[in-house]
């Protein structure tokens, strides 16, 4: 009968505990880094909000990164189609962000306007009804990137045509939308329609960079697990040593 070497068992347990503790610590540090990134993003967003308002009819750049976070106004008209961004949760309810293509003046540029959130009413195959807006108007809002996707599915960039005027997507991909015929030249940024505009929906805009507290909470949990692994391992080793000596 083979005799188990208790020293090797104890050493293996110690190595495994140190590995887990190091892993959990690294995950905690990663969450702290994510919290810092969120904090910096929010600070930059607020800073850009203090800059002068952009007139998109007179802009000289098409760089979405340079425009991000700025307040802006634009004259033109909605051209359609309606783009429903799927899997948007508000107060525990599933719904869509409603994007509509907006022709910028007499140019070939098209801007995606986020008009707000609507709930999914029961059957997902039921197509929401929208009023056709074609008259020229001036919009105001804030320029922002579309929501990031969580789990990126293979078909998340496909444009699902629900009707002649309404399509549904799993993520906003400007190249995919352009290929699907949404506008002649999409500006790589979206406009969060101001709350006072009549043609919008639920618009409780959350600034990017939110969720810092969540990442700090995750970091605390990972660090707590790292400490727990070390403490439990020490207790087990001490008990094994005590049992062996007795």
From TrEMBL:
Keywords: Membrane, Transmembrane, Transmembrane helix. InterPro entries: Surf1/Shy1 (IPR002994), Surf1/Surf4 (IPR045214). The keyword tRNA-binding does not apply. The chain crosses the membrane at residues 218-238. This is SURF1-like protein. It comes from marine metagenome. It is found in: Membrane. One of its GO terms (cellular component) is membrane. CDD domains: SURF1 (cd06662).
